Amino acid sequence: MSLNLVRKFRYNFRTFLWSLIRMFLFLTSTTNSLLMVQRRSRLRVVDNSPLGKQAMLEGKPPRMIHVCYSRMRHGFLGDKVLVTIKGQMKHAIIVGTVQEQRAFTPRYDSNNIVLLDEQGNPLGTRILTPIPNRLRGKGQEMSKLIAIGTKFV
């Protein structure tokens, strides 16, 4: 009876020690990070619109509120989203995500968006980062973005 208690104590103590070593040695979280664009995710404006430039210079990036025309709570490449930027609500299109993509679609270091006006036209005149080629097949809504894009990956 006491031998089982000793074994159980050793096992629990050993797992406790390994968790402490992992915590102090690696100083990283053991949970997976969230890589999707979801509600309240901070985004990066990659066009040259004055509103986007000013928000990024002030260090107050836009945050996502809602994914338009979708039941999903997460935004993916090419989705139209509603964002707040400098106290205003604007529509935007996601042109790059940190999330793992399928084959031949690039993965970015940040979640990138292009701001749109009420009619669906881009607010800026240039997109400053490369755009995935996969957006070319998304339909007429993306044709305006493709026209102002300078680089494609």
From TrEMBL:
Pfam families documented for this protein: Ribosomal_L14 (PF00238)
Cellular component aspect of the GO annotation: mitochondrion; ribonucleoprotein complex; ribosome
Biological processes annotated in GO: translation
InterPro entries xref list: Ribosomal_uL14, Ribosomal_uL14_sf
Keywords: Membrane, Mitochondrion, Ribonucleoprotein, Ribosomal protein, Transit peptide, Transmembrane, Transmembrane helix
Gene Ontology MF terms: structural constituent of ribosome
UniProt name for this protein: Large ribosomal subunit protein uL14m
